[in-house]
Design brief:
By secondary structure, the protein is mainly α. Helices cover 67% and strands 3% of the residues. The chain has helices spanning 12-30, 32-39, 53-56, 64-85, 87-117, 124-135, 142-155, 172-189, 197-216, and strands spanning 160-162, 169-171. Strands 1-2 form a two-stranded antiparallel ribbon. Helix 4 runs parallel beside helix 7 and helix 5 (87-117) packs across helix 9 (197-216). The longest helix has 31 residues, at 87-117. The protein is globular.
């Protein structure tokens, strides 16, 4: 991809975020069960849920390609944004997007079990749904990365991003809209059910709210 004309060297926060993610991934390789049970994000009604998982989950990944694409995107978008905002503002934004993504994901799971939790007697389908929600861990920096994608698209809307596959070029603003629409459609239809689509949308939503707040206060670039 061509991420515009302004691409500095790896910045301090981005570099350290990548290091933490890699350390957490290596730890997961050697102690997968422990890391998943304690650091992945579970539904708040699950016996595995712990309050701090809303933070730790975004440093967990489910495979080599999962962490590679997230860290690649973090590097490509994050270095540009951190260079513009500075380390403190960038870290705040990244964490808000990641935590926001986790909260929206929790809400989406709650809405799955809400219509059936109080129905008695429970059907087998209802029991399976509740068990699946309670036992499904959410991992990955994707929610925070989608927030970075949104920020890039808002600050550099006309920068052209060139994809290798598929071989197409899009302005950043259109890519944000297309990716957001795909995630919304996929989440509503259940396409690729092993992907936390609403977490991705949550990262974009919280990022949008924070950027609009900073713009209103004239603090977007200060």
């Amino acid at each position: 991809m061509n991420y515009g004309y302004y691409r500095p060297r790896t910045t301090f926060v981005v570099m350290n975020l990548i290091i933490i993610n890699v350390i957490m991934y290596v730890a997961t390789v050697f102690a997968e069960r422990f890391m998943i049970e304690h650091c992945a994000l579970f539904y708040f009604g699950s016996p595995f849920f712990k309050w701090y998982q809303i933070v730790t989950y975004m440093f967990m990944h489910g495979g080599v390609w999962h962490i590679f694409f997230n860290m690649f995107s973090l590097y490509m978008f994050g270095t540009v944004i951190e260079s513009m905002w500075g380390a403190r503002k960038f870290l705040l934004y990244y964490m808000v997007c990641g935590i926001g993504a986790g909260l929206v994901n929790e809400l989406s799971m709650y809405l799955q079990v809400l219509p059936i939790e109080d129905v008695r007697p429970l059907t087998m389908d209802a029991i399976d749904t509740i068990r699946r929600v309670n036992m499904t861990p959410t991992v990955g920096a994707s929610g925070a990365v989608y927030g970075l994608l949104l920020a890039y698209g808002m600050m550099f809307p006309n920068n052209v991003l060139q994809f290798i596959f598929p071989p197409i070029a899009l302005k950043a603003k259109w890519m944000v809209l297309i990716f957001g629409a795909i995630e919304l459609l996929s989440g509503l239809t259940g396409t690729m059910g092993n992907v936390a689509h609403f977490a991705h949308l949550g990262g974009m939503l919280f990022g949008l709210v924070l950027i609009l707040y900073w713009k209103k206060k004239n603090k977007l670039y200060t």
